[in-house]
Amino acid sequence: MYPWMDEVQQKYNLYIYRFQPTSQGIWMETNRGPTVMHAIPSPLVHKEELVQVTYRVMQHTGMVTPLLQSQEEKLVNTISGVPSYLMRWPAEESEWVDYEGLGEALAQFHLVSRYLERRESSSVQLGTWEQKWLKRLRNLYHSQRMAHRRAGRMIPLDSFLLQNFQLLTQSCQTALSYLQRVNYQELCSSCQTVGRIAYERFGHHQFIVTEHERVMFTDPFSWAEDTRARDIGNFIQDDVKEFGWNPKQIYSFISGYHRVSPLLPEEFYLMYAMFHMPERVMKKLEVAYNPPSSLFSFFSKENPELEQARFETESLTLQDMVADLKRNDTLIREFPAFLEQSFAVRL
Question: What pTM did the predictor assign?
Answer without folding.
Answer: 0.92
